[in-house]
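Researcher: Please generate the 3D structure of the following complex. Treat every line as part of one assembly.
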Amino acid sequence: MMLLRQTLRLVWKDVIVEVRRKELVYASAFFAGMVILIFSFAFLGGLRPTLDVAAGVLWVTVALTGTLGIGRAFEREREGDTFRALLLSPLPRPAIYLGKLASLCLLMAVVIAVAAFAVGLLFGAPLADHAGHVGLLLVLGSVGFAAIASLFAASLGRARARELLLPLLVYPLAAPVLIAGARATAGLLTGEDPALPAFWTRFLVVFDLIVVALGLWSFEALAAGEG
Amino acid sequence: MKLRWPYLLCAVLAALGLAWAPTLIVTAPREPMMGIVQKIFYFHVPIAWTMFQSAFLCAGGAIAFLFWRSERGERLAAAAAELTVLFGGLVLITGPLWARKAWGRWWEWDVRLTSSLLLWMIFIAYLFARRYGGMGGKRLAAGLAIFGAADVPLIYLSVSIWRTIHPKTSVVPTLDPAMRPAFWVSFLAMTFCYFVLLGARLALERSRARLDDLYLKAEDLGLFDGDTA
Amino acid sequence: MNRISALVITLCLLCCAIVQAQDKEGFVPVAAGENLAGETLPGNRLVAIAYGAILVALIAWIASVAARSRKVEDELAALRERLEKRG
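Model: Done. Output below.
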């Protein structure tokens, strides 16, 4: 209960900071829109792309924007030395990790809303027909992606070339999330194999539990050198 | 490099195995469906198992470094990571060569192949993080190794869990008796070869650590005072 | 959170993942004699390329480690010499 209260307090702190500055939300939402626009230039010139492509575009956008947003969120913490203050505080490490994870998931929720709307509009993907299941997939995907990205973004510290390193570290580890999400979404949109979305959803649940558990286990050791 | 007797023994056994295995492979009976291309199996599978073993060793060293600040663990992790990339690359070369004949295409995006490719990329990212991460790069790389090692059981069990084009793990225990000597000699040769390579790579890491210590000692003695950048 | 219990939980979840994802449909083998996608590459060439690649990669890697070791040893020797001269 104490852990939950501390985690929620940290999430609220991040929400307040973002509401005042609005830097990450606006920039990430705009970036998501731009990425989908670029994909639509690439795919919508000639033949109508398949719904598989729409699903892939959605998840690639989530991955790219998520990395950008999470990297910038931690950079902001480093500039203000607030992450060091958090580590020096008596807050337990799991609360810090879960707090960052939850607030980054909230950021990604905004990105996802913009991306899903843009994909539905530009690619004609019937995402609204499966809003519940697609929403669940996007939430699970955000949790898995943010669990990995926040762990390594926190660990990058004052490493050189950290803007370059973060995607290099995150994408190979987060690839199963993107594969599962894209395949399940494509399965829902095309309706070809009804068992496929359920299978990939279960996969995402288990994967999320494993990466969050590994993240909690290794957060102190990886981020402890910071500050 | 001072050669200790376990490494010498491994080197001798590896050399003997690598010399003997080809003769056994050539004389082993041909698999009726795939023909001669099945002979790639005799090294493809041992190399894949060695890659898994190397990934676990790397993760073990990484855990020792992260939780017990063991520099020896870190050196082991670095050496094992490089070998995981080497053996992973060999798996990704020999596999498609076999697949081209067996399945009619170089690659298939099934679970085992995709997760093997991801494992290889995770350990390449390890080398990037260690090399370019600056201060804290070693810690970052160690974190990657732990997550990467979690991928290994998924790769191994993927063919049993999911519908996949890749042959099942039951191929090895149910191997034709006439094919077993070639397979097991290749496996032992590759394992001993791995430990020899690991020993050589560890020696390089130890030399680098000695060099770093000497630079620190030289700096303390003021050897570089007045040196221009 | 206790590290050991977190690791045990992770391993249990991994086992749950394996159990729940059981798909009993097996691998469908290729029919004997079936000509796959107009295959014309000779099998023995592919085998030769595979073994050649293994040999080349191992030799190249050994050469790379030897070169790096030599560079480090040279640097060590030079630094020791500087230290000895300094006294």
